[in-house]
């Protein structure tokens, strides 16, 4: 009796600690990822208010939307004035067009749609985990982990179509998993549900070409399950995709193919690909390793899920981030898939540990088809944690989520409250970055109220009043003349009510592929037909830059969003 009295208080104390400690960690993990959601919303709202390009190319997306709102194709002849064309599929812009009808050509329209698309993606990830694992906090964090990624944070609220493509991809794969689960439960095919998957895939592909990887993943999964059925669905899917493609190409006199296919053949930069892969793994270590472990588990112990196939192909396809003009956003699909796999593994492990808590050992079977084994193979693991197995797992999972949260740390610190939070977390409150200059002399580094574990980045820092004033200053330079500006950013001409002239990266890609005639453009530049030239990164083809250098001179330098813009006017002696 005295022995029980001596042991019992210690055991009760230990049980109390093990009861509350996991719940404290779960609360901290939820708080961390909800905090990232708040930071994401702050960044998005600041971008909604900014009336110029934040990321190079946003203005061209807006221009595409304007053209669609007028019932015009943006796939045009780059050889003639205004030397402009789009290089992306139409769906994203078509969806935003009604907002342009209602509110005019505003940047916030596309930024809002892209931002909402990332929220839908996060919700789909959470749903995919919840319907299997039934652990609400794991499902919630899995969805929020997508939004917490540095890459999603940087690009999600921009007027760019990439995250909208990821939304359709995620919805398609989650719908595929639901369809096959329901078919197995009911013992019959649900072709209407599968048709919905095909529609989502089609939407993803006509939002951005990169969705081909998810299309391949879906049909590969279907082929692994039912080869004949996969072929039967692939044929009409390819036919519909092709018909839409050829219809648009016919409607645009072939400029659709030129601008969306030929103009996207860019050189591959191995160092860029390697650097981005290293950064992706460093930032998303917990998500990536967990996803790989779950994929290995499925390979050895059960049938491969659509999420595993999707993750594998998405990771391989992320090598395309090494193309010139590509970047970190190309990993977003792999990140979405890894969030689902992480949530599934954590939920299943927690549920299993609860069911088998206190078991002395467990026996697992490796089925013979794996690695061509001659027969099923079994092995046994002993439970050295005893009745604390469930508690140990319940401690480990939120701890891993907290590690992941720390790895992706990013926060603007432009307000006193955010500065206090960063300081309380033991993080820096600012970074020192030199403004980006390509057409002017280098400048000294400046303090930026933003910290990011991804490293030096000009994305992520909310634009401020000085940036808006700088944009208005550049616009005023255009309005001082009579013509549209020959500009690397579309936003200034849009603000001034002038023609959007050129899409520089599009022209450079076509030039590198010998698919553009610069004769008319060079003649206009040589004749100083433009009152103003605006350069930011000098992405124009070399002959264009040569002509600008000969006929124009820099009259003003304006810094906006960490970039120095060169405002140029005709050289007097050449008029």
Short summary of the structure?
It is built from 22 helices and 10 strands. The chain is of the alpha+beta class and 575 residues long.
Index terms:
single chain, 575 residues, alpha+beta, 3 domains, four-stranded mixed sheet, two-stranded antiparallel ribbon, 22 helices, 8% strand, disordered N terminus
Describe this structure in words.
The protein is of the alpha+beta class and 575 residues long. The chain has helices spanning 2-48, 58-69, 91-103, 107-133, 136-148, 150-155, 162-186, 191-205, 212-225, 227-251, 255-260, 270-283, 285-301, 306-317, 332-355, 389-407, 416-424, 465-479, 491-496, 504-512, 519-526, 542-551, and strands spanning 361-366, 377-382, 410-412, 431-433, 446-448, 450-452, 486-487, 533-535, 552-560, 563-570. The strands form four sheets. The protein has a four-stranded mixed β-sheet. The radius of gyration is 27 Å and the shape is globular. It starts with a helix and ends in a 5-residue tail after the last strand.
Element layout with pairings:
Elements: H1 2-48, H2 58-69, H3 91-103, H4 107-133, H5 136-148, H6 150-155, H7 162-186, H8 191-205, H9 212-225, H10 227-251, H11 255-260, H12 270-283, H13 285-301, H14 306-317, H15 332-355, E1 361-366, E2 377-382, H16 389-407, E3 410-412, H17 416-424, E4 431-433, E5 446-448, E6 450-452, H18 465-479, E7 486-487, H19 491-496, H20 504-512, H21 519-526, E8 533-535, H22 542-551, E9 552-560, E10 563-570
Parallel strand pairs: 7-8
Antiparallel strand pairs: 1-2, 3-6, 4-5, 8-10, 9-10
């Amino acid at each position: 009796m005295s022995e029980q009295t001596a042991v019992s208080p210690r055991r009760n104390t230990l049980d109390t600690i093990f009861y509350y400690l996991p719940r404290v960690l779960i609360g901290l993990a939820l708080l961390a990822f909800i905090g990232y959601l708040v930071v994401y919303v702050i960044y998005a709202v600041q971008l909604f208010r900014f009336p110029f390009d934040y990321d190079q190319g946003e203005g061209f997306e807006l221009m595409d939307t304007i053209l669609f709102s007028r019932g015009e194709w943006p796939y045009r002849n780059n050889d003639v004035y205004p030397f402009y064309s789009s290089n992306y599929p139409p769906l994203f812009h078509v969806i935003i067009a009604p907002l342009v009808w209602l509110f005019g050509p505003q940047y916030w329209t596309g930024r809002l749609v892209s931002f909402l698309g990332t929220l839908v993606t996060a919700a789909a990830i959470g749903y995919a985990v919840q319907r299997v694992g039934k652990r609400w906090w794991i499902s919630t964090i899995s969805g929020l982990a997508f939004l917490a990624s540095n890459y999603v944070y940087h690009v999600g609220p921009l007027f760019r179509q990439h995250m909208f493509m990821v939304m359709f991809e995620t919805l398609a794969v989650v719908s595929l998993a639901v369809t096959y689960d329901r078919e197995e439960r009911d013992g019959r095919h649900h072709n209407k549900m599968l048709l919905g998957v095909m529609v989502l895939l089609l939407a993803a592909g006509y939002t951005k070409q990169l969705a081909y990887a998810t299309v391949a993943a879906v049909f590969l999964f279907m082929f692994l399950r039912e080869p004949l059925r996969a072929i039967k669905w692939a044929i009409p899917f390819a036919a519909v995709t092709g018909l839409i493609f050829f219809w648009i190409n016919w409607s645009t006199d072939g400029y659709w193919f030129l601008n969306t296919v030929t103009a996207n053949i860019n050189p591959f930069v191995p160092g860029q690909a390697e650097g981005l892969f290293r950064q992706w793994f460093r930032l998303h270590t917990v998500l990536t390793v967990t996803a790989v472990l779950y994929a290995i588990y499925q390979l050895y112990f059960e049938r491969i899920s659509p999420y595993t196939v999707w993750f594998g192909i998405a990771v391989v396809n992320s090598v395309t981030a090494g193309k010139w003009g590509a970047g970190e956003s190309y990993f977003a699909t792999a990140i979405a898939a890894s969030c689902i796999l992480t949530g599934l593994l954590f939920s299943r492990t927690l549920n299993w540990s609860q069911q088998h808590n206190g078991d002395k050992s467990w026996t697992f079977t490796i089925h013979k088809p794996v690695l061509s084994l001659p027969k099923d193979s079994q092995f046994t693991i002993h439970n050295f944690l005893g009745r604390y197995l469930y508690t140990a797992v319940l401690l480990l999972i939120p701890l891993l989520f907290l590690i992941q949260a720390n790895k992706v740390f990013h926060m603007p610190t432009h307000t006193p409250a955010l500065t206090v939070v960063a300081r309380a977390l033991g993080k820096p409150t600012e970074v020192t970055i030199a403004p980006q200059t390509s057409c002017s002399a280098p400048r000294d580094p400046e303090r930026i109220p933003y910290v990011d574990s991804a490293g030096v980045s000009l994305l992520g820092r909310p634009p401020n009043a000085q940036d808006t004033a700088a944009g208005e200053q550049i616009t005023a330079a255009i309005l001082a003349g009579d013509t549209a500006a020959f500009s690397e950013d579309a936003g200034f001409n849009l603000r001034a009510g002038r023609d959007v002239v050129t899409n520089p990266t599009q022209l450079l890609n076509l030039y590198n592929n010998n698919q553009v005639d610069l004769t008319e453009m060079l003649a206009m530049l040589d004749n100083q037909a433009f009152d103003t030239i605006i350069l930011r990164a000098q992405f124009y083809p070399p002959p264009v830059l040569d002509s600008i250098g000969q006929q124009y001179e820099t009259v003003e330098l304006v810094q906006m969003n960490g970039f120095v813009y060169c405002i140029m006017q005709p050289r007097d002696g050449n008029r």
